[in-house]
Design goal:
The protein is of the alpha+beta class. The chain has one domain: Alpha-Beta Plaits (2-Layer Sandwich). It is 33% helix and 35% strand. It is built from 3 helices and 4 strands; from the N terminus they run βαββααβ. The longest helix has 17 residues. The radius of gyration is 13 Å and the shape is globular.
Length: 92
């Protein structure tokens, strides 16, 4: 499994209407262990999430199914693979 940081910038006119469906989608992924952390960025201009997926193609399918993306509320999206080395969330 690989870790990915995904940052999205919102279409301001659309994101608020879609937010409940987006959060429901991410909540389900969090229950499955796919989303480790997620939340909005300062000023509600966008959001960031830490995902765990088999590979980049698997992640792409996941983020392309997000209601924000499906319903046109994403203006820009950046995906970077991430390798956690230190932190209190890492196992022993």
């Amino acid at each position: 499994m690989a870790w990915f940081v995904v940052e999205q910038r919102y279409v301001r006119e659309k994101f608020a209407e879609v937010r409940p469906r987006h959060r429901e989608y991410l909540s389900a992924l969090a229950e499955q262990g796919v989303v480790a952390l997620a939340g909005p960025l300062d000023g509600d201009t966008g959001g960031m999430a830490l995902y765990q997926a088999t590979d980049r193609e698997h992640l792409q399918r996941i983020i392309d199914a997000d209601p924000y993306y499906v319903e046109g509320a994403v203006d820009e999206r950046t995906v970077r693979e991430f390798t956690p080395v230190l932190g209190s969330l890492l196992p022993g």
